[in-house]
Design a protein that fits this description.
The chain has about 625 residues and is α/β, with parallel strands linked by helices. The chain folds into three domains: about 170 residues, Rossmann fold, CATH 3.40.50; about 260 residues, no CATH class; about 110 residues. The chain has 26 helices and 17 strands. The strands form four sheets. Strands 7, 8, 9, 10, 11, 12, 13, 14 and 17 form a nine-stranded mixed β-sheet that branches. Strands 1-2-3 form a three-stranded antiparallel β-sheet. The longest helix is centred in the middle third of the chain and has 27 residues. The radius of gyration is 30 Å and the shape is elongated. The two termini are about 50 Å apart.
Length: about 625
């Protein structure tokens, strides 16, 4: 960390060794600190409170003093300390807790009479930062978490640095080279620009897609908002190529299973819907525009025409499926409707079991979850499990009744039963914590994807089923490369990588500014909102600074981009709600793009996705912030 600061400032680097004096039996708790030159700082109140005797304190100081001398010898390798008299000295540490070690360092450093002392740390309590502000010339606390638990809580990787690593860093020059030998150092944006590949309208060239996709079975394509036209359009175009050229046989979307399956029937020439608009009419739940929009409608029409052509040639068709679990009541209805056709007695059993949910308002899973979680209504977990087991027990008999079509319909019904079971757990978990419910949802999507792959492998004339997934970046990206991983949150993209390894690809989208279709509150009206320019320090800002309008960048395809994309930056996520007034808190989190995605497609300026039923608010749009309101 100190090396990075020194290198950025082209300043010389040295190690100023300080040893914590830990309480007997609780060495991680500092009662004081020992710095170079024998400077000892002790918290007398803590020493008295813990009843540490002078002899104990002396023994601790002697032990740590020996370790301090050893480390200085190893780290410095015989070199004398830097001369700091009359100079500005920046003391960098991984963080402050009590501040005892830093206080000892400051006291010892003052004896060398530097001109200024600056403290720079990535994390510390606000109270400690304020205390040091009165002791030194400047204090930089990059973050002040509240509540402050421990320094390590602010890091993804808090492993101890080894002696060899410290020695190597101290031996690596940080100062500027002479003008005769100095080479031009490219900025991260210049590096990315030099290796980025133009992707007109967000669609990479065919040869780039070939190199990126390879033999992957599962390709997850994201979006950094649920309401950006270019993301949907480019994703649809890439998906058409995957289906036509790479043999992908299904789209699995972040959509409810029964509503998406209605679309699946339409694109395969089944069902009663005559148009794509009718097939998409099942998407009534907020936010309907996610799937009831002009881009998805046009894609669905294309897929139906394509399937009709392939069917006439005896070639396999491609389907459209949903991965989500919000359809608690709708999935129950579909299970009963299916069983009434194939097994009326089983339908009666299902109706009795699902009657447990009747105390909650129709099609309101959240109301059921609230009642079950807080004792205002019964838990229907047992009934949901029994119905799923019943469906699984009779699956083979149902599937044998009418060939391939029967197998598909049985699979559809069984997945509805599975959705009911998982949705029941999800809605109860909504009131026990966000991470728990999020993980249940993404695990359900991963399980549905796996079930769909197995079903298509068994029942379709393809060597190995290949599926393209449409979902938000926050689901598609690998959680392990984001700050949410520290909270225990996982994602569909992470689970896909763990399950399919090199047979999976994660592709994210980003934009710098433009407009977006989103609501102001959950359940609200679709609006066309202005998207603010991305924040400083974000991946969107970095990609904007390349000066390119639309391109793809991948550390896997172009390793030269790895360093620039491995830096932790802010990443923007606009879902179905956009609140620009709380932009940082509502829509940004820390990410490592190189590890989050296999590739990122950036479109610098984008426009709002057009709903099939645009509201008056959407048509009117939003007055830009620069509009002269003072006239």
């Amino acid at each position: 960390m100190a090396w990075e600061v020194a290198a950025a400032l082209h300043a010389p680097l040295d190690a100023f060794i300080v040893r914590k004096l830990g309480a007997p039996g609780h060495e991680e708790f500092a009662v004081g600190a020992l710095a170079r030159g024998g400077r000892v700082v002790v918290n007398d109140d803590v020493v008295r409170g813990l009843r540490i005797s002078p002899e104990q304190l002396r023994a601790i100081a002697e032990r740590e003093g020996r370790e301090l001398i050893r480390r200085e010898a190893v780290y410095r390798g015989g070199r004398p300390p830097l001369e700091v008299t009359g100079k500005t000295v920046i003391l960098v540490d991984d963080g402050l807790a009590t501040g005892a070690s830093m206080f000892a360092a400051v006291q010892a450093l003052r004896e060398s009479e530097p001109a200024h002392i600056v403290i720079a740390v990535p994390a510390a309590p606000e109270s400690t930062c304020r205390e040091f502000a009165g002791l030194v010339d400047d204090v930089v606390c990059a973050s002040m978490p509240t509540p402050f638990l421990a320094v390590g809580e602010s890091f993804w990787d808090f492993r101890q640095v080894t002696d060899d690593e410290v020695h190597q860093l101290l031996a690596t020059p940080t100062t500027t080279q002479s003008s005769t030998t100095k080479a031009k150092v490219l900025s991260p944006a210049e590096v990315v620009s030099s290796v980025a590949i133009d992707a007109p309208s967000g669609v990479p060239p065919r040869e780039t897609l070939e190199e990126l996709i390879g033999d992957a079975r599962v390709v997850l394509i994201g979006e950094s908002s649920h309401g950006t036209h270019e993301f949907y359009e480019a994703r649809a175009t890439i998906t058409k190529w995957l289906i036509e050229e790479k043999g992908f046989c299904a789209v699995a979307a972040e959509a409810d299973w029964p509503d998406a399956y209605r679309v699946n029937r339409y694109v395969r020439g089944l069902g009663e819907d005559k148009t794509a608009d009718e097939a998409l009419s099942g998407f009534e739940r907020f936010p309907a525009w996610m799937w009831r929009n002009t881009v998805v409608r046009d894609f669905v029409d294309w897929l139906r025409i394509r399937n009709r052509r392939h069917e006439s040639n005896g070639q396999p068709q491609a389907g459209f499926y949903g991965l989500d679990l919000y359809s608690l009541h709708r999935s129950m209805q579909e299970v009963i409707a299916y069983l009434e056709k194939v097994d009326p007695e089983a339908a009666a059993r299902a109706r009795n079991r699902y009657a447990c949910f009747d105390h909650a308002s129709a099609d309101d899973g959240q109301a059921y979850g609230y009642a079950a979680a807080f004792g205002a209504g019964p838990s229907c977990e047992k009934d949901a499990i029994e119905q799923l087991v019943d469906m699984q027990r009779n699956a083979l008999a149902y599937a044998r009744r009418d060939g391939l079509l029967a197998e598909d319909e049985q699979f559809y019904a069984q997945q509805n039963a599975q959705t009911v079971r998982n949705a029941e757990v999800y809605y109860r978990a909504m009131f026990s914590g966000r991470v728990t419910s999020w993980n249940l949802r993404d695990k359900h999507m991963a399980e549905t994807l796996e079930a769909l792959l197995k079903h298509l492998d068994r029942h379709h004339d393809v060597p190995s089923a290949r599926i393209v997934v449409w979902a938000h970046n926050s689901h598609v990206g690998d959680a392990r490369a984001t700050e949410v991983w520290a909270d225990g949150q996982l994602t569909l993209g992470q689970l896909a990588r763990q399950r399919y390894g090199d047979e999976s690809r994660l592709i994210g989208f980003s934009t710098y500014t433009g407009t977006v279709t989103a609501a102001s509150d959950w359940g609200g009206i679709a609006e066309r909102k202005a998207v603010r320019p991305a924040l400083n320090g974000s991946i969107e800002e970095l990609l904007h600074e390349t000066g390119r309008s639309a391109f793809v960048v991948s550390a896997d395809l172009r390793p030269e981009a790895a360093d620039a994309l491995s830096i932790v930056r802010l990443g923007r996520a606009i879902g179905v709600i956009y609140r620009p007034e709380t932009e940082r808190q509502s829509h940004y989190f820390h990410v490592r793009p190189a590890d989050q995605f296999d590739a990122m497609i950036h479109i610098d300026e984008t426009r709002a996705l057009e709903p099939l039923e645009p509201t008056s608010l959407w048509i009117a749009g939003e007055t830009p912030e620069t509009y002269p309101s003072g006239l």
